[in-house]
Amino acid sequence: MRGRSTSSEEPAPFDIRVFGDPVLRSRAANVENVDGALVAVVDDMLATMYAEPGLGLAAPQVGISKRLFVYDLGDGPNAIVNPVISESRGEWTYEEGCLSVPGLHWEIIRPKEVHLTGFDLDGNEVSIEADELEARLFQHELDHLEGRLLIDHLEGDIRKAAMRTVREQFLGLL
């Protein structure tokens, strides 16, 4: 999910994959082992997220088809492995952007509250009741793990116009 801060001076360890890259449309595989290699990937994902700037970043966005995402909503970096949303409630409309469709934003309707479970990098189970922006971030990153982009949440003429813009900008098609 795209943030509003400014980019850092250091180059990002990963390139962000953008609309048109097949990895963004594939369901990511479960992480089988949390080891030093995965921790190193998480560190590089966080550095990439901060450099872009973003609030969250899913592994497929850097070309890694694993069920993992990182995020920071201002209280420090976090990583969630094999996340699942088991409950959702309410409705909240918010202008949402994405590092994989940079420069474009749309009002997206999503559940206002979610219950997310998964694991941290120490293998401990994580259970989070999230509301508003945190809930939206979790849903956005899980969409990436399922091969969905925010544009998939648009309907009708808004979706048609968005797809035309995205195709022109990222695929060079008319």
Could you name the CATH topology? Peptide Deformylase
| Unreliable segments of 5+ consecutive residues | 4-8
Q: What's the total count of β strands? A: 7
Question: Order of strands in the sheet with the most strands?
Answer: 1-2-3-6-7
Distance between the termini: 27 Å
What amount of the residues lies in strands? 25-35%
Overall tally of structural domains: 1
Give me the CATH architecture, please: Alpha-Beta Complex
SSE ordering: HEEEEEEEHH
- Based on CA inertia axes, which overall geometry fits? globular
Mean pLDDT: 93
- At the first level of CATH, the class is Alpha Beta
From the alpha-carbon coordinates, what is the Rg to the nearest angstrom? 15 Å
Major β-sheet profile: 5 strands, antiparallel
Helix content: 25-40%
CATH superfamily: Peptide deformylase
User: What is the number of helices?
Assistant: 3
- Helix/strand class: alpha+beta
Q: In oligomeric terms, what are we looking at? A: single chain
